[in-house]
Write a structure and sequence with these properties.
By secondary structure, the chain is mostly helical. The chain has helices at 8-14, 17-20, 38-44, 56-65, 70-84, 96-106, 116-125, 132-149, 158-165, 168-183; strands at 113-114, 156-157. GO terms for molecular function: calcium ion binding; monooxygenase activity.
């Protein structure tokens, strides 16, 4: 399976995080994201026209730019906007100390990367009792990230994980997908 053949249920679960995390403030312009939280940088990729508002069409276009199909992109855009449109709690999802803790506690073989087994152990150790939706969301999100971004040695590098939070991973994947499409 190549990195763009992700099943729709996993894609939808990956973005369940948007049900938990809400962007109440306007997103920053993509070309000037300094001074913004990592969460704002994360969503700036989807603000395709840089007006500070992310419309379903822009979410669809962002998913297409990442290489997802029409059905998956349409479903993800509909789901994301359906579950986040009513939320208005402003806060930042990224906590640097918790991010560092992922690797200090769980990256045993390589200090700046996680193996598949280490990732599974990390997810298991961070489960909240009886939060089945949370378990599904976390496992789906991390599995997709691992499948898309593991290196040739089967490791998920720390800088790649950080790039999800600051949104730069989306930019990189879009460029890679564009190169593939232009070569075909």
């Amino acid at each position: 399976m190549n990195s763009y053949q992700v099943s729709l249920p996993l894609l939808i679960s990956f973005f369940y995080v948007f049900y938990q995390i809400v962007i109440a403030t306007a997103t920053p312009p993509a070309n000037n994201s300094s001074g913004y939280s990592v969460l704002q940088k994360h969503v700036a990729f989807f603000d395709r026209n840089h007006d500070g508002i992310i419309y379903p069409k822009e979410t669809f276009e962002g998913f297409r730019a990442l290489g997802f199909g029409v059905v998956a992109s349409t479903s993800a855009a509909a789901l994301i906007h359906a579950v986040t449109s009513q939320k208005t709690r402003p806060f930042s999802m990224f906590v640097a100390s918790k991010f560092e803790e992922i690797f200090s506690k769980h990256a045993k073989q390589h200090p700046n990367a996680l193996t598949s087994d280490e990732l599974k152990e990390m997810l298991k150790s961070n489960r909240e009792p009886k939060d089945f939706k949370g378990w599904l969301a976390a496992e789906s999100e991390w599995k997709i990230l691992f499948d898309l971004c593991k290196d040739n040695n089967g490791l998920l590098q720390k800088d790649i994980v950080y790039s999800v939070y600051d949104g730069s991973l989306f930019e990189r994947l879009e460029k890679e997908h564009s190169k593939i499409m232009n070569n075909n």
